[in-house]
Amino acid sequence: MSTQLLFADADSFVTPLLTVFAVDIASGTDANPLPTLLTTSDVLSDAASTVLASGEFKAARGETLLLHRPEGLKADRLLIVGLGNVKKLSPDELRIGSGTAVRFAKSKSIRSVAILFPEDRALSDEHLESLDCMPSARSLVEGALLADFDPDTYRSDRKDRSMEGITILAPAQQKVTQDEIREGHTEGMIFAAAQNFTRSLVNEPGNVLTPTELGKRTATMCRAAGLSCEVHSTAKLKELGMGAFLGVAQGSAEPPALIVMRYTPAQPAPGGKIAALVGKGITFDTGGISIKPADGMDKMKYDMAGAGAMIGAMQAIAALKPRIEVISVICSAENMPSGTAYKPGDVLTAMSGKTIEIMNTDAEGRLVLADGLHYAKTLGATHLIDAATLTGAVVVALGKLNSGLFSNDEETCAHFHQAARTAGEHFWRMPCTDDYRELIKSSIADIMNTGRDRWGGSITAAMFLKEFVGETPWVHLDIAGQAWIDEHHTEIAKGPSGVAVRSIVEWVRALAA
Ligand code: BES
Ligand code: ZN
Ligand code: ZN
Protein backbone atom coordinates (compact mmCIF):
# COMPACT_ATOMS: atom_id res chain seq x y z
CA MET A 1 0.00 0.00 0.00
CA SER A 2 1.24 3.46 -0.79
CA THR A 3 -0.36 6.85 -0.57
CA GLN A 4 -1.05 9.27 -3.35
CA LEU A 5 -0.36 12.96 -3.03
CA LEU A 6 -2.61 15.31 -4.96
CA PHE A 7 -2.73 19.06 -5.10
CA ALA A 8 -6.41 19.59 -5.75
CA ASP A 9 -9.53 21.26 -4.50
CA ALA A 10 -11.36 19.36 -1.73
CA ASP A 11 -14.83 20.58 -2.61
CA SER A 12 -14.88 18.90 -6.01
CA PHE A 13 -12.90 15.78 -5.07
CA VAL A 14 -14.81 12.55 -5.63
CA THR A 15 -14.18 10.05 -2.83
CA PRO A 16 -16.18 7.69 -0.59
CA LEU A 17 -14.72 9.43 2.48
CA LEU A 18 -13.17 12.85 2.81
CA THR A 19 -11.39 13.53 6.10
CA VAL A 20 -10.91 16.97 7.56
CA PHE A 21 -9.16 17.72 10.85
CA ALA A 22 -10.57 19.83 13.63
CA VAL A 23 -8.90 21.38 16.65
CA ASP A 24 -10.26 22.39 20.00
CA ILE A 25 -9.43 26.10 20.41
CA ALA A 26 -10.56 26.48 24.03
CA SER A 27 -8.23 28.69 26.03
CA GLY A 28 -8.25 29.88 29.61
CA THR A 29 -10.20 33.02 28.77
CA ASP A 30 -12.75 31.85 26.25
CA ALA A 31 -14.79 29.00 27.67
CA ASN A 32 -15.96 26.29 25.25
CA PRO A 33 -15.69 27.88 21.81
CA LEU A 34 -16.69 25.61 18.91
CA PRO A 35 -13.92 23.55 17.30
CA THR A 36 -12.11 24.94 14.25
CA LEU A 37 -11.82 22.94 11.03
CA LEU A 38 -8.36 23.02 9.48
CA THR A 39 -9.59 24.06 6.08
CA THR A 40 -10.14 27.33 4.26
CA SER A 41 -12.92 25.86 2.13
CA ASP A 42 -16.17 27.70 2.87
CA VAL A 43 -18.16 24.94 1.21
CA LEU A 44 -16.65 22.36 3.54
CA SER A 45 -17.10 24.56 6.60
CA ASP A 46 -20.73 25.21 5.66
CA ALA A 47 -21.37 21.48 5.23
CA ALA A 48 -20.20 20.89 8.79
CA SER A 49 -21.58 24.02 10.39
CA THR A 50 -24.87 22.65 11.75
CA VAL A 51 -23.39 19.64 13.45
CA LEU A 52 -20.46 21.67 14.82
CA ALA A 53 -22.86 24.30 16.14
CA SER A 54 -24.58 21.61 18.21
CA GLY A 55 -21.51 21.54 20.44
CA GLU A 56 -21.64 17.74 20.53
CA PHE A 57 -18.27 17.33 18.83
CA LYS A 58 -15.39 18.61 20.95
CA ALA A 59 -12.46 17.82 18.60
CA ALA A 60 -10.77 15.75 21.30
CA ARG A 61 -7.81 13.74 20.08
CA GLY A 62 -9.12 10.69 18.20
CA GLU A 63 -12.77 11.85 18.34
CA THR A 64 -14.64 11.30 15.07
CA LEU A 65 -17.84 12.60 13.53
CA LEU A 66 -19.32 11.25 10.29
CA LEU A 67 -21.64 13.08 7.90
CA HIS A 68 -23.28 11.39 4.91
CA ARG A 69 -23.87 13.29 1.68
CA PRO A 70 -22.28 16.53 2.87
CA GLU A 71 -23.91 19.44 1.11
CA GLY A 72 -21.91 21.10 -1.63
CA LEU A 73 -19.15 18.46 -1.63
CA LYS A 74 -18.52 15.73 -4.18
CA ALA A 75 -17.47 13.30 -1.43
CA ASP A 76 -19.98 10.63 -0.34
CA ARG A 77 -19.10 11.16 3.31
CA LEU A 78 -17.26 13.73 5.40
CA LEU A 79 -15.31 12.51 8.41
CA ILE A 80 -14.23 15.11 10.93
CA VAL A 81 -11.33 13.94 13.09
CA GLY A 82 -10.37 15.77 16.28
CA LEU A 83 -6.71 16.53 16.95
CA GLY A 84 -7.14 17.85 20.50
CA ASN A 85 -6.29 21.30 21.77
CA VAL A 86 -4.61 23.64 19.32
CA LYS A 87 -1.97 24.59 21.90
CA LYS A 88 -0.63 21.04 21.86
CA LEU A 89 -0.76 20.66 18.10
CA SER A 90 2.26 19.08 16.44
CA PRO A 91 2.90 16.62 13.61
CA ASP A 92 2.42 13.85 16.19
CA GLU A 93 -1.26 14.74 16.47
CA LEU A 94 -1.52 14.54 12.68
CA ARG A 95 -0.07 11.02 12.76
CA ILE A 96 -2.79 10.02 15.21
CA GLY A 97 -5.41 11.94 13.23
CA SER A 98 -4.74 10.33 9.88
CA GLY A 99 -4.38 6.94 11.57
CA THR A 100 -7.78 7.43 13.18
CA ALA A 101 -9.31 8.26 9.78
CA VAL A 102 -7.92 5.11 8.16
CA ARG A 103 -8.88 2.84 11.08
CA PHE A 104 -12.37 4.35 10.93
CA ALA A 105 -12.61 3.65 7.20
CA LYS A 106 -11.35 0.08 7.64
CA SER A 107 -13.85 -0.65 10.39
CA LYS A 108 -16.64 0.29 7.96
CA SER A 109 -15.07 -1.55 5.01
CA ILE A 110 -14.53 1.72 3.19
CA ARG A 111 -11.47 1.03 1.05
CA SER A 112 -10.62 4.47 -0.16
CA VAL A 113 -10.09 7.66 1.77
CA ALA A 114 -8.92 11.20 1.07
CA ILE A 115 -7.27 13.13 3.88
CA LEU A 116 -7.13 16.88 3.69
CA PHE A 117 -3.71 18.30 4.43
CA PRO A 118 -4.30 20.74 7.31
CA GLU A 119 -4.45 24.26 6.05
CA ASP A 120 -2.57 26.46 8.42
CA ARG A 121 -4.33 29.59 7.26
CA ALA A 122 -7.21 28.37 9.36
CA LEU A 123 -5.00 28.74 12.42
CA SER A 124 -3.88 31.91 14.12
CA ASP A 125 -0.24 32.91 13.70
CA GLU A 126 0.92 31.69 17.08
CA HIS A 127 0.15 28.09 16.07
CA LEU A 128 1.58 28.23 12.57
CA GLU A 129 5.06 27.09 13.42
CA SER A 130 3.82 23.93 15.12
CA LEU A 131 2.76 22.62 11.71
CA ASP A 132 5.69 22.85 9.30
CA CYS A 133 4.79 21.34 5.94
CA MET A 134 7.48 18.69 5.61
CA PRO A 135 7.04 17.00 9.02
CA SER A 136 3.28 17.41 8.79
CA ALA A 137 3.10 15.62 5.46
CA ARG A 138 5.43 12.94 6.72
CA SER A 139 3.36 12.34 9.85
CA LEU A 140 0.10 12.25 7.90
CA VAL A 141 1.44 9.57 5.59
CA GLU A 142 3.02 7.58 8.43
CA GLY A 143 -0.21 7.61 10.42
CA ALA A 144 -2.30 6.51 7.44
CA LEU A 145 -0.02 3.65 6.39
CA LEU A 146 0.60 2.41 9.93
CA ALA A 147 -3.17 2.30 10.40
CA ASP A 148 -3.57 0.09 7.34
CA PHE A 149 -1.69 -2.76 9.06
CA ASP A 150 -3.74 -5.53 10.69
CA PRO A 151 -2.26 -8.57 12.44
CA ASP A 152 -4.94 -11.13 11.50
CA THR A 153 -2.92 -12.75 8.68
CA TYR A 154 -3.60 -16.29 9.91
CA ARG A 155 -7.37 -16.07 10.20
CA SER A 156 -9.21 -18.09 7.56
CA ASP A 157 -12.10 -15.65 7.88
CA ARG A 158 -9.72 -12.73 7.54
CA LYS A 159 -11.73 -9.72 6.57
CA ASP A 160 -9.33 -8.33 4.07
CA ARG A 161 -10.04 -4.73 4.67
CA SER A 162 -6.76 -3.38 3.38
CA MET A 163 -7.07 0.07 1.95
CA GLU A 164 -7.08 0.37 -1.81
CA GLY A 165 -6.46 4.08 -1.96
CA ILE A 166 -5.26 6.73 0.44
CA THR A 167 -5.00 10.21 -1.00
CA ILE A 168 -3.40 13.13 0.75
CA LEU A 169 -5.17 16.15 -0.63
CA ALA A 170 -3.24 19.38 -0.39
CA PRO A 171 -4.65 22.66 -1.59
CA ALA A 172 -2.96 23.83 -4.78
CA GLN A 173 -2.54 27.31 -3.41
CA GLN A 174 -0.81 26.22 -0.19
CA LYS A 175 1.44 29.13 0.67
CA VAL A 176 4.46 27.03 1.50
CA THR A 177 6.05 25.08 -1.28
CA GLN A 178 4.59 21.93 -2.68
CA ASP A 179 8.11 20.51 -2.71
CA GLU A 180 8.19 20.36 1.07
CA ILE A 181 4.95 18.45 1.15
CA ARG A 182 6.28 16.10 -1.53
CA GLU A 183 9.44 15.47 0.43
CA GLY A 184 7.47 14.74 3.60
CA HIS A 185 5.18 12.44 1.67
CA THR A 186 8.10 10.43 0.28
CA GLU A 187 9.80 10.15 3.66
CA GLY A 188 6.56 9.17 5.35
CA MET A 189 6.14 6.26 2.93
CA ILE A 190 9.70 5.07 3.61
CA PHE A 191 9.36 5.25 7.40
CA ALA A 192 5.93 3.63 7.47
CA ALA A 193 6.92 0.80 5.11
CA ALA A 194 9.93 0.04 7.31
CA GLN A 195 7.89 0.11 10.51
CA ASN A 196 5.19 -2.10 8.98
CA PHE A 197 7.85 -4.55 7.82
CA THR A 198 9.08 -4.73 11.41
CA ARG A 199 5.52 -5.28 12.62
CA SER A 200 4.98 -8.08 10.11
CA LEU A 201 8.10 -9.87 11.39
CA VAL A 202 7.18 -9.40 15.06
CA ASN A 203 3.67 -10.64 14.34
CA GLU A 204 4.85 -14.01 13.07
CA PRO A 205 4.42 -16.96 15.44
CA GLY A 206 7.47 -18.69 16.85
CA ASN A 207 6.89 -21.87 14.85
CA VAL A 208 7.06 -19.93 11.60
CA LEU A 209 9.65 -17.31 12.41
CA THR A 210 12.57 -19.39 13.66
CA PRO A 211 16.04 -17.81 13.72
CA THR A 212 16.73 -19.42 10.33
CA GLU A 213 13.53 -17.97 8.87
CA LEU A 214 14.36 -14.53 10.31
CA GLY A 215 17.67 -14.79 8.48
CA LYS A 216 15.92 -15.68 5.21
CA ARG A 217 13.44 -12.84 5.43
CA THR A 218 16.16 -10.38 6.33
CA ALA A 219 18.27 -11.53 3.38
CA THR A 220 15.27 -11.13 1.05
CA MET A 221 14.67 -7.58 2.30
CA CYS A 222 18.37 -6.76 1.91
CA ARG A 223 18.45 -8.01 -1.67
CA ALA A 224 15.48 -5.83 -2.56
CA ALA A 225 16.87 -2.81 -0.72
CA GLY A 226 20.42 -3.06 -2.03
CA LEU A 227 22.04 -3.93 1.31
CA SER A 228 24.62 -6.63 1.81
CA CYS A 229 23.63 -9.42 4.17
CA GLU A 230 25.31 -12.49 5.66
CA VAL A 231 23.53 -15.10 7.73
CA HIS A 232 25.68 -17.36 9.92
CA SER A 233 24.87 -20.15 12.33
CA THR A 234 26.44 -22.40 14.96
CA ALA A 235 29.77 -23.03 13.21
CA LYS A 236 30.52 -19.32 12.86
CA LEU A 237 29.42 -18.62 16.45
CA LYS A 238 31.90 -21.26 17.60
CA GLU A 239 34.61 -19.84 15.38
CA LEU A 240 34.05 -16.37 16.85
CA GLY A 241 33.92 -17.73 20.40
CA MET A 242 30.44 -16.40 21.08
CA GLY A 243 29.98 -18.48 24.21
CA ALA A 244 27.17 -16.38 25.66
CA PHE A 245 25.07 -16.45 22.48
CA LEU A 246 25.78 -20.18 22.02
CA GLY A 247 24.80 -20.88 25.63
CA VAL A 248 21.32 -19.48 25.02
CA ALA A 249 20.93 -21.31 21.70
CA GLN A 250 22.08 -24.73 22.88
CA GLY A 251 18.75 -25.78 24.39
CA SER A 252 16.82 -25.49 21.16
CA ALA A 253 16.46 -27.82 18.19
CA GLU A 254 16.43 -24.66 16.04
CA PRO A 255 19.91 -23.43 15.13
CA PRO A 256 20.75 -19.80 15.98
CA ALA A 257 21.26 -17.11 13.36
CA LEU A 258 23.83 -14.34 13.42
CA ILE A 259 22.67 -11.90 10.79
CA VAL A 260 24.97 -9.13 9.61
CA MET A 261 23.62 -6.37 7.36
CA ARG A 262 25.68 -3.55 5.85
CA TYR A 263 24.87 -0.23 4.29
CA THR A 264 27.73 1.58 2.56
CA PRO A 265 27.09 5.17 1.44
CA ALA A 266 28.31 6.35 -1.95
CA GLN A 267 29.99 9.35 -0.33
CA PRO A 268 30.50 9.02 3.40
CA ALA A 269 30.68 12.27 5.37
CA PRO A 270 34.16 12.97 6.76
CA GLY A 271 34.80 11.58 10.23
CA GLY A 272 34.81 7.87 9.50
CA LYS A 273 31.86 7.11 11.74
CA ILE A 274 30.36 3.63 11.64
CA ALA A 275 27.01 3.15 13.34
CA ALA A 276 26.16 -0.36 14.52
CA LEU A 277 22.59 -1.46 15.15
CA VAL A 278 22.41 -4.53 17.38
CA GLY A 279 19.13 -6.36 17.94
CA LYS A 280 17.86 -9.03 20.35
CA GLY A 281 16.24 -11.66 18.18
CA ILE A 282 14.84 -14.29 20.54
CA THR A 283 12.16 -15.82 18.32
CA PHE A 284 10.57 -17.45 21.35
CA ASP A 285 11.44 -17.01 25.02
CA THR A 286 10.16 -19.81 27.26
CA GLY A 287 12.62 -18.68 29.94
CA GLY A 288 14.58 -21.90 29.45
CA ILE A 289 15.25 -24.01 32.55
CA SER A 290 14.17 -20.98 34.65
CA ILE A 291 10.88 -21.43 32.84
CA LYS A 292 8.27 -18.69 32.65
CA PRO A 293 4.71 -19.15 33.97
CA ALA A 294 2.25 -20.47 31.34
CA ASP A 295 0.03 -17.38 31.55
CA GLY A 296 0.99 -14.96 28.81
CA MET A 297 3.89 -17.03 27.56
CA ASP A 298 2.36 -17.02 24.06
CA LYS A 299 3.32 -13.38 23.77
CA MET A 300 7.00 -14.23 24.01
CA LYS A 301 7.07 -14.61 20.23
CA TYR A 302 7.61 -10.86 20.27
CA ASP A 303 10.96 -11.25 22.01
CA MET A 304 12.61 -10.56 18.66
CA ALA A 305 11.10 -7.07 18.41
CA GLY A 306 14.50 -5.44 18.97
CA ALA A 307 15.90 -7.39 16.02
CA GLY A 308 12.77 -6.54 14.05
CA ALA A 309 13.29 -2.83 14.75
CA MET A 310 16.87 -2.96 13.48
CA ILE A 311 15.90 -4.87 10.33
CA GLY A 312 13.14 -2.34 9.58
CA ALA A 313 15.53 0.52 10.31
CA MET A 314 18.06 -0.89 7.84
CA GLN A 315 15.37 -1.03 5.16
CA ALA A 316 14.62 2.68 5.70
CA ILE A 317 18.32 3.56 5.84
CA ALA A 318 18.86 1.89 2.48
CA ALA A 319 16.13 4.09 1.02
CA LEU A 320 17.10 7.35 2.71
CA LYS A 321 20.83 6.96 1.97
CA PRO A 322 22.46 8.88 4.83
CA ARG A 323 26.17 9.64 4.39
CA ILE A 324 27.36 7.21 7.05
CA GLU A 325 28.35 3.59 7.09
CA VAL A 326 25.87 1.44 9.00
CA ILE A 327 26.17 -2.17 10.06
CA SER A 328 23.56 -4.21 11.86
CA VAL A 329 24.16 -7.32 13.93
CA ILE A 330 21.16 -9.48 14.77
CA CYS A 331 21.53 -12.22 17.38
CA SER A 332 18.71 -14.66 16.94
CA ALA A 333 17.99 -17.83 18.92
CA GLU A 334 15.16 -19.66 20.63
CA ASN A 335 15.34 -19.90 24.44
CA MET A 336 14.16 -23.44 25.32
CA PRO A 337 14.38 -25.86 28.24
CA SER A 338 15.76 -29.26 27.24
CA GLY A 339 18.40 -31.84 28.05
CA THR A 340 20.93 -29.74 26.22
CA ALA A 341 19.83 -26.38 27.62
CA TYR A 342 22.13 -24.15 29.65
CA LYS A 343 21.39 -24.13 33.36
CA PRO A 344 21.51 -21.82 36.37
CA GLY A 345 24.99 -22.06 37.83
CA ASP A 346 26.64 -22.60 34.45
CA VAL A 347 29.54 -20.33 33.57
CA LEU A 348 29.72 -19.06 29.98
CA THR A 349 32.65 -17.31 28.34
CA ALA A 350 31.59 -14.44 26.10
CA MET A 351 33.36 -13.49 22.88
CA SER A 352 35.06 -10.62 24.73
CA GLY A 353 36.62 -13.16 27.11
CA LYS A 354 34.48 -12.15 30.10
CA THR A 355 33.07 -15.04 32.11
CA ILE A 356 29.40 -15.01 33.11
CA GLU A 357 27.74 -16.92 35.93
CA ILE A 358 24.19 -17.82 34.92
CA MET A 359 21.77 -17.00 37.72
CA ASN A 360 18.62 -17.22 35.63
CA THR A 361 18.26 -18.65 32.12
CA ASP A 362 15.36 -16.28 31.49
CA ALA A 363 17.85 -13.39 31.42
CA GLU A 364 18.95 -14.58 27.96
CA GLY A 365 18.59 -11.40 25.93
CA ARG A 366 21.56 -9.70 27.54
CA LEU A 367 23.67 -12.79 26.81
CA VAL A 368 23.07 -12.78 23.07
CA LEU A 369 23.49 -9.00 22.99
CA ALA A 370 26.79 -9.21 24.90
CA ASP A 371 28.31 -11.10 21.99
CA GLY A 372 26.47 -9.01 19.40
CA LEU A 373 27.75 -5.73 20.84
CA HIS A 374 31.29 -7.01 21.15
CA TYR A 375 31.21 -8.39 17.63
CA ALA A 376 29.95 -5.04 16.29
CA LYS A 377 32.97 -3.36 17.88
CA THR A 378 35.33 -5.81 16.17
CA LEU A 379 33.63 -4.86 12.88
CA GLY A 380 34.70 -1.26 13.49
CA ALA A 381 31.63 0.32 15.11
CA THR A 382 32.28 3.82 16.42
CA HIS A 383 28.72 4.27 17.72
CA LEU A 384 26.52 1.51 19.09
CA ILE A 385 22.79 1.26 19.54
CA ASP A 386 20.86 -1.80 20.66
CA ALA A 387 17.16 -2.49 20.96
CA ALA A 388 15.64 -5.32 22.95
CA THR A 389 12.53 -6.49 24.73
CA LEU A 390 14.96 -6.99 27.56
CA THR A 391 13.14 -6.80 30.89
CA GLY A 392 9.72 -6.93 32.49
CA ALA A 393 11.19 -4.48 35.00
CA VAL A 394 11.25 -1.64 32.47
CA VAL A 395 7.49 -2.03 32.08
CA VAL A 396 7.09 -1.81 35.86
CA ALA A 397 9.22 1.34 35.88
CA LEU A 398 7.82 3.21 32.87
CA GLY A 399 4.51 1.59 31.97
CA LYS A 400 3.65 1.33 28.31
CA LEU A 401 3.99 4.96 27.29
CA ASN A 402 7.79 5.21 27.30
CA SER A 403 10.61 2.84 26.50
CA GLY A 404 13.77 2.75 28.58
CA LEU A 405 16.80 4.65 27.28
CA PHE A 406 20.25 3.98 28.70
CA SER A 407 23.53 5.47 27.55
CA ASN A 408 27.17 5.83 28.52
CA ASP A 409 27.64 9.07 26.60
CA GLU A 410 25.87 12.42 27.12
CA GLU A 411 26.19 13.66 23.54
CA THR A 412 25.05 10.41 21.96
CA CYS A 413 22.14 10.26 24.38
CA ALA A 414 21.14 13.86 23.60
CA HIS A 415 21.25 13.05 19.88
CA PHE A 416 18.99 10.09 20.45
CA HIS A 417 16.53 12.16 22.48
CA GLN A 418 16.34 14.70 19.67
CA ALA A 419 15.93 11.92 17.10
CA ALA A 420 13.06 10.43 19.10
CA ARG A 421 11.37 13.84 19.29
CA THR A 422 11.62 14.22 15.52
CA ALA A 423 10.27 10.70 15.07
CA GLY A 424 7.42 11.25 17.54
CA GLU A 425 8.39 8.39 19.86
CA HIS A 426 8.82 8.34 23.64
CA PHE A 427 11.91 7.23 25.51
CA TRP A 428 12.78 7.99 29.11
CA ARG A 429 16.35 7.97 30.29
CA MET A 430 17.25 5.58 33.09
CA PRO A 431 20.56 5.46 34.97
CA CYS A 432 23.40 3.08 34.27
CA THR A 433 26.15 4.72 36.28
CA ASP A 434 29.05 2.65 37.59
CA ASP A 435 27.74 2.58 41.16
CA TYR A 436 25.22 -0.01 39.97
CA ARG A 437 28.01 -2.34 38.87
CA GLU A 438 28.08 -3.92 42.34
CA LEU A 439 24.74 -5.57 41.55
CA ILE A 440 26.13 -7.89 38.87
CA LYS A 441 29.42 -8.82 40.58
CA SER A 442 29.88 -12.58 40.90
CA SER A 443 32.12 -14.53 43.24
CA ILE A 444 32.40 -17.39 40.73
CA ALA A 445 32.93 -15.51 37.46
CA ASP A 446 33.55 -11.95 36.21
CA ILE A 447 29.86 -11.05 36.28
CA MET A 448 26.43 -12.61 36.82
CA ASN A 449 23.62 -12.39 34.29
CA THR A 450 21.13 -10.98 36.86
CA GLY A 451 21.22 -9.12 40.15
CA ARG A 452 20.63 -11.00 43.41
CA ASP A 453 17.14 -9.56 43.83
CA ARG A 454 14.58 -8.10 41.46
CA TRP A 455 15.11 -4.41 42.27
CA GLY A 456 16.25 -2.21 39.42
CA GLY A 457 15.95 -5.08 36.97
CA SER A 458 16.17 -2.99 33.80
CA ILE A 459 19.24 -1.20 35.18
CA THR A 460 21.10 -4.41 36.05
CA ALA A 461 20.38 -5.61 32.50
CA ALA A 462 21.80 -2.37 31.08
CA MET A 463 24.84 -2.61 33.39
CA PHE A 464 25.45 -6.08 32.06
CA LEU A 465 25.43 -4.83 28.46
CA LYS A 466 27.69 -1.93 29.40
CA GLU A 467 30.40 -4.46 30.31
CA PHE A 468 30.66 -5.36 26.62
CA VAL A 469 30.44 -1.85 25.22
CA GLY A 470 33.47 -0.31 26.92
CA GLU A 471 34.20 3.28 25.92
CA THR A 472 32.31 3.21 22.61
CA PRO A 473 29.39 5.69 22.68
CA TRP A 474 26.29 3.55 23.13
CA VAL A 475 22.53 3.77 23.44
CA HIS A 476 20.44 0.88 24.79
CA LEU A 477 16.68 0.79 24.22
CA ASP A 478 14.57 -1.50 26.39
CA ILE A 479 11.32 -1.71 24.41
CA ALA A 480 9.58 -4.52 26.33
CA GLY A 481 6.65 -2.26 27.27
CA GLN A 482 6.00 -0.65 23.91
CA ALA A 483 6.77 -3.31 21.32
CA TRP A 484 3.35 -4.90 21.70
CA ILE A 485 0.08 -2.94 21.92
CA ASP A 486 -2.57 -4.54 24.16
CA GLU A 487 -4.93 -1.60 24.53
CA HIS A 488 -7.42 -0.21 22.03
CA HIS A 489 -6.19 2.87 20.17
CA THR A 490 -8.16 4.83 17.58
CA GLU A 491 -5.15 5.12 15.27
CA ILE A 492 -3.37 1.76 15.27
CA ALA A 493 -4.23 -1.94 15.57
CA LYS A 494 -3.47 -4.01 18.66
CA GLY A 495 -0.39 -6.19 18.28
CA PRO A 496 3.16 -5.40 17.21
CA SER A 497 3.90 -1.67 17.21
CA GLY A 498 7.22 -1.39 15.38
CA VAL A 499 8.41 0.99 18.10
CA ALA A 500 11.92 2.46 17.80
CA VAL A 501 12.30 2.03 14.04
CA ARG A 502 11.71 5.72 13.30
CA SER A 503 13.90 6.98 16.16
CA ILE A 504 16.79 4.69 15.28
CA VAL A 505 16.73 5.85 11.66
CA GLU A 506 16.62 9.51 12.73
CA TRP A 507 19.54 8.91 15.09
CA VAL A 508 21.61 7.41 12.28
CA ARG A 509 20.80 10.39 10.06
CA ALA A 510 21.81 12.79 12.82
CA LEU A 511 25.15 10.99 13.19
CA ALA A 512 25.75 11.45 9.47
CA ALA A 513 25.08 15.18 9.59
N1 BES B 1 11.94 -11.37 27.22
C1 BES B 1 11.98 -11.12 28.60
C2 BES B 1 11.57 -9.70 28.98
C3 BES B 1 10.16 -9.35 28.73
C4 BES B 1 9.23 -9.43 29.74
C5 BES B 1 9.76 -8.85 27.51
C6 BES B 1 7.94 -9.07 29.53
C7 BES B 1 8.46 -8.49 27.30
C8 BES B 1 7.55 -8.59 28.31
C9 BES B 1 13.39 -11.35 29.15
O1 BES B 1 14.15 -12.27 28.48
C10 BES B 1 13.21 -11.80 30.56
O2 BES B 1 12.61 -12.80 30.75
N2 BES B 1 13.72 -11.05 31.50
C11 BES B 1 13.59 -11.37 32.88
C12 BES B 1 14.89 -11.08 33.56
C13 BES B 1 14.98 -11.62 34.96
C14 BES B 1 15.04 -13.12 34.94
C15 BES B 1 16.21 -11.05 35.61
C16 BES B 1 12.47 -10.50 33.46
O3 BES B 1 12.34 -9.36 33.05
O4 BES B 1 11.72 -11.00 34.28
ZN1 ZN C 1 13.85 -14.26 29.13
ZN1 ZN D 1 13.70 -12.53 26.45
From TrEMBL:
GO CC, sorted alphabetically, is: cytoplasm
Q: Enumerate the UniProt keywords alphabetically.
A: Aminopeptidase, Cytoplasm, Hydrolase, Manganese, Metal-binding, Protease
Cofactors named for this entry: Mn(2+)
Q: What is its main location?
A: cytoplasm
Catalysed reaction, written as an equation: Release of an N-terminal amino acid, preferentially leucine, but not glutamic or aspartic acids; Release of an N-terminal amino acid, Xaa-|-Yaa-, in which Xaa is preferably Leu, but may be other amino acids including Pro although not Arg or Lys, and Yaa may be Pro. Amino acid amides and methyl esters are also readily hydrolyzed, but rates on arylamides are exceedingly low
Q: Which residues are responsible for catalysis?
A: 292, 366
Where can this protein be found?
A: Cytoplasm
Q: Name the Pfam families for this protein.
A: Peptidase_M17, Peptidase_M17_N
Which terms does the record give in the GO molecular function aspect? manganese ion binding; metalloaminopeptidase activity
Quote the EC number.
3.4.11.1, 3.4.11.10
Q: Give binding positions for Mn(2+) 2.
A: 280, 285, 303, 364
Q: Which top-level group of life is the source organism from?
A: Bacteria
InterPro entries to which the protein is assigned, alphabetical: Leucine_aapep/pepB (IPR011356), Macro_dom-like (IPR043472), Peptidase_M17_C (IPR000819), Peptidase_M17_leu_NH2_pept (IPR023042), Peptidase_M17_N (IPR008283)
Q: Which Gene3D superfamilies match?
A: Leucine Aminopeptidase, subunit E, domain 1 (3.40.220.10), Zn peptidases (3.40.630.10)
Cofactor binding note from Swiss-Prot or TrEMBL: Binds 2 manganese ions per subunit.
Residue positions annotated to bind Mn(2+) 1 are 285, 362, 364
- Name all Cytosol aminopeptidase domain ranges: 360-367
- GO BP annotations, alphabetical order: proteolysis
Family label: Belongs to the peptidase M17 family.
- Function, please? Presumably involved in the processing and regular turnover of intracellular proteins. Catalyzes the removal of unsubstituted N-terminal amino acids from various peptides.
Listed name of the protein:
Probable cytosol aminopeptidase
Q: Which organism encodes this protein?
A: Terriglobus roseus
